[in-house]
Amino acid sequence: MSNSQAIEDYAKTIYSLSCERDGLVLNGEVADRLDVTPATATSMLKRLADLGLVEYFPYKGVSLTPAGEKVALEVIRHHRLIEAYLSEALGMPEDRVHEEAEVLEHYISEELEALIAAKLGEPRHDPHGTPIPGPDLVPPTWGAR
């Protein structure tokens, strides 16, 4: 896994965990979700803080900065658009699109993202019914359909 992939995965994970409840995201939660050791997670979270993507509070947890949230929403948009494309345009079974999108989300260009979104009519939800962030990367309204 490249450094940029890891950064994107951590940002996406922190974002997802922070949407599940209020408060800081704990290092252990990140480690569990990404299946890494707590020491590995802590090391990466410190690195993300150095990059300005998270606010890191030792022994308390992290929160995304606006720059970190943008990274997370961009990779989430890529992931969900890829899921929608694989499902709708290629007919891939819904139970397979997530795994494929996990790999591809790190590699599509902004141009390909725009082409996929245009081809699908700028979809608002992925095949699982989860909202897709728009091109403006404003967090989607989770309850809206």
Q: What's the short story on this structure?
A:
The protein has helices at 3-20, 27-34, 38-50, 66-88, 94-104, 110-119, and strands spanning 54-57, 61-64. The chain is mostly helical.
How many domains make up the coordinates? 2
What structural class should be given to the helix and strand makeup?
Answer: mainly alpha
What is the CATH topology classification name of the largest domain? Arc Repressor Mutant, subunit A
CATH architecture of the largest domain: Orthogonal Bundle
Which residue ranges are poorly predicted, with pLDDT under 50 across at least 5 consecutive positions?
Answer: none
Write the layout of secondary structure elements.
Elements: H1 3-20, H2 27-34, H3 38-50, E1 54-57, E2 61-64, H4 66-88, H5 94-104, H6 110-119
Antiparallel strand pairs: 1-2
Task: Explain the overall architecture.
The protein folds into 2 domains: 3-64, Winged helix-like DNA-binding domain superfamily/Winged helix DNA-binding domain (Arc Repressor Mutant, subunit A), CATH 1.10.10.10; 75-119, Diphtheria Toxin Repressor, domain 2 (Orthogonal Bundle), CATH 1.10.60.10. It has helices at residues 3-20, 27-34, 38-50, 66-88, 94-104, 110-119, and strands at 54-57, 61-64. The chain contains 6 helices and 2 strands, in the order αααββααα. It is mainly alpha-helical. The chain is elongated. The chain has a two-stranded antiparallel ribbon with strand order 1-2. The mean pLDDT is 92. It starts with a helix and ends in a 26-residue tail after the last helix. The relative contact order is 0.13.
